[in-house]
Specification:
The complex is a heterodimer of chains A (about 375) and B (about 280). With about 375 residues, chain A is of the alpha/beta class. In chain A, about 35% of the residues lie in helices and about 25% in strands. Chain A has a six-stranded mixed sheet, sandwiched between helices. A four-stranded antiparallel sheet of chain A has the order 2-1-4-5, with helices on one face. Chain B has about 280 residues and is mostly helical. Chain B has two domains: about 240 residues, Orthogonal Bundle (MetI-like fold), CATH 1.10.3720.10; about 35 residues, no CATH class. In chain B, helix 8 runs antiparallel to helix 9 and helix 9 runs antiparallel to helix 11. Classes of the chains: A alpha/beta (about 375), B mainly alpha (about 280). Chains A and B meet through helix 2, strand 6, helix 4, helix 6 and helix 7 of A and helix 8, helix 9, helix 13 and helix 14 of B.
């Protein structure tokens, strides 16, 4: 995150009271959204998260306060012009059912008066970007599955390449399997397009998975905590946050941190040329019944400690190649799963064929106790 | 001419009582003569066309606008309910003396106004409901991509409401054509004359012939509006009213290449079947 740069979005004392209402739906909300980051607004219903989102592109006009987009007060820009410069994705997708997929994606470019050829080119580019086959462009929305429709929704929002994308429960209407896949796709997409994304969700796992920062809102648009997912889980600011993130926040953090975030430890491993004594020493040091053999950067396999002392060299002893391997990019949750099913209670870190060390339960526990993000930095 | 019709019984279509219904209808002289069926048909069609055109102009834009703005919801329901309770014949009858006093004669104004009052409420209601029920997601998205309110109405709400609006216009128009013949009892002519004259002359066959003519015109009107609807609707709108996926894909795939299921053709055939299955709604 580039903290030096001006935030792409800056909300200052933004307030909304709906006509006929006794209380503010959102009261004096301050929020900075750093450029190129994904920020989630999450909270119980009635917390004003959707209201806040819709005030950014003025679908709801704030009662007070100031919203700056790239330094410009949004109320200084005509609403229609402002909205053409902000992508918007909603749960109901809201595709125009009487227009083809291609025409749907090209909505904003057409409104901006682009030439036909350029719109066609952009439409194809976008369908590739969101993983939609080009034959779909001539179809109509009701011929597509829910997941495909939501991809079209994202493509439409990105059509004129807006710097900011607003998403209101974008994956709320699709089933869990598709939701997970669309979330991965969004992360992949974000790698390439680097938009500033504000996402409203009621799904904590989704927020944790997608966000760089999470703003947890309480009723009345009060931000209880605005922090990275890991910080939110590790150090809830107050009881409300603690209750919201739940008792299983350590488990949630496991999905968040990767094996690569842990300090690498070589574990009870010796070179294949070592002798029995060296092997026994390292096993004792790790209180392990097993010893691993390496040759250069390759992990050869595990040897049962009871086989030592039989007169054979390490290389001659029977060994087995464990399936219990993880890559540095896998989550700690995945590593935990591997460890649980491993005879040696250890997962070998295999970084594209290179042996990097081992992961143990103890390491994961210690990692969660400390600040994983700091260790990674 | 209108006042004269009533005052001069000679202008009646005098038909011998033993003329059969079809003998009457198939006699070319009856069509081209004066008074003749063609002339009466033209009278009726012109009046109905004027009523329908005026009603569309009065009802559709106003209803569409009010529905878009979500305004006058109660008032609309109220106006429409009052409108439904209007007795067309009584209104026309009451308007006749007013028209005569104003020097406008027996007709066509009283019947014209009464028919318009009959037609506006259903057209208003169908348009209002049609626009209001357009998918909120599409409307929200339209605003969010920077459509002006006018664009939201003309490019999204009206196209999506078009099918229901057209149905309302068609039904109301058939109703106008079916009701217009009361004009013959209010000092006018038109197709209703044969029923009126048949009753006057106690000629049952003439009454039946007149009724058949009116029914045919009403049915024809329905067909005409269906045809107009087809011509006017954009492709994307036209397919909205059709039966869902299965039927459409079959017609799009005359060789049956899509196989057994319909889902496979929705573009997911070449994907992992498990994922595709999950991806489907």
């Amino acid at each position: 995150m580039d903290t030096d740069a001006l935030p792409a979005l800056r909300l200052r004392a933004v307030r909304k009271r709906f006509p006929g209402s006794e209380a503010d739906a959102v009261q004096a909300l301050d929020l900075d959204v750093p450029r190129g980051s994904i920020v989630s607004l999450i909270g119980p219903s009635g917390c004003g998260k959707t209201t806040t989102l819709r005030m950014i592109n003025r679908l709801i006009e704030p009662t007070g306060g100031r919203i700056e987009l790239e330094g410009t007060d949004v109320s200084d820009v005509p609403a229609t012009e402002l909205r053409r410069g902000i992508g918007y994705v909603i749960q109901q997708v809201g595709l125009f059912p009487h227009r083809t997929i291609g025409a749907n994606i090209g909505t904003v470019p057409r409104a901006l008066g682009w030439a036909k050829a350029r719109i066609a080119e952009r439409t194809e580019e976008l369908s590739d970007l969101v993983g939609l086959e080009r034959v779909m462009l001539d179809r109509y929305p009701d011929e597509l599955s829910g997941g495909q429709q939501q991809r079209v929704g994202v493509a439409r929002a990105l059509a004129a390449d807006p710097p900011v994308l607003l998403m209101d429960e974008p994956f709320g209407a699709v089933d869990p399997i598709v939701r997970t896949r669309l979330q991965s796709e969004l992360l992949d997409l974000q790698e390439r397009v680097k938009k500033t994304i504000v996402l409203v969700t009621h799904d904590l796992d989704e927020a944790i998975r997608l966000s760089d920062r999470i703003a947890l809102l309480n009723v009345g648009g009060v931000i209880e905590q605005y922090a990275s997912p890991d910080e939110l889980l590790r150090a809830p600011a107050n009881d409300f946050v603690a209750e919201f993130v739940g008792d299983d926040r350590s488990m949630r953090r496991l999905t968040l941190a990767t094996v690569g975030d842990l300090p690498f430890e070589r574990g009870p491993v010796v070179d294949v040329a070592a002798n029995d004594l060296e092997a026994q020493k390292i096993m004792a040091a790790h209180r392990s019944d097993w010893v691993g053999l390496t040759e250069g950067e390759t992990f050869l396999g595990w040897i049962d400690g009871h086989e030592l002392g039989s007169g054979r060299t390490l290389n001659e002893l029977p060994r087995f190649m464990p399936a219990a391997q993880v890559t540095p990019a896998q989550s700690l949750r995945a590593a935990l799963e591997v460890i649980m099913t491993s005879r040696t209670s250890v997962a070998v870190i295999n970084d594209a064929g290179r042996f990097r060390g081992v992961v143990t339960l103890e390491q994961i526990r210690a990692g969660l106790a400390g600040d994983l993000a700091e260790q990674a930095a | 001419m209108s006042a004269a019709t009533v005052l001069a019984p000679l202008a009646q279509a005098a038909v011998p009582r033993d003329t059969g219904v079809f003998e009457f209808l198939l006699d070319g002289q009856r069509w081209t003569g004066s008074p003749g069926i063609l002339g009466d048909l033209l009278d009726t069609v012109l009046l109905c066309a004027a009523v329908i055109a005026l009603s569309i102009v009065l009802a559709v834009p106003l209803a569409a606008y009010l529905a878009h703005e979500r305004k006058a919801q109660l008032a609309s329901a109220w106006v429409v309910n009052i409108g439904r309770a209007i007795p067309t014949f009584a209104i026309a009858g009451l308007l006749v003396p007013v028209s005569l006093r104003g020097g406008y004669g027996f007709e066509p104004w009283p019947i014209f106004i009464a028919l318009t009052l009959l037609t506006v409420p259903p057209m208003f209601l169908s348009t209002y409901v049609a626009v209001k029920q357009v998918s909120p997601g599409a409307v929200d998205a339209a605003r969010a991509v920077g459509y002006t309110e006018r664009d939201v109405l003309t490019k999204v709400e009206l196209p999506l409401a078009m099918t229901v609006i057209f149905t309302g216009i068609r039904v109301a128009s058939v109703q106008v054509v079916a009701t217009e013949p009361i004009r013959a009892f209010l000092g006018g002519d038109g197709l209703g004359r044969y029923v009126r004259d048949g009753l006057g002359q106690r000629n049952q066959n003439l009454v039946i012939a007149g009724a058949i003519l009116i029914a045919l015109l009403a049915g024809g009107t329905g067909l005409l509006f269906t045809a107009i609807e087809r011509l006017v609707k954009p492709v994307g709108v036209r397919r909205l009213g059709r039966p869902k996926r299965a039927g459409r894909l079959q017609s799009a795939d005359p060789l049956g290449l899509a196989g057994e299921g319909t889902e496979g053709t929705a573009g997911s055939a070449d994907r992992d079947p498990v994922v595709a299955a999950a991806d489907r709604r």
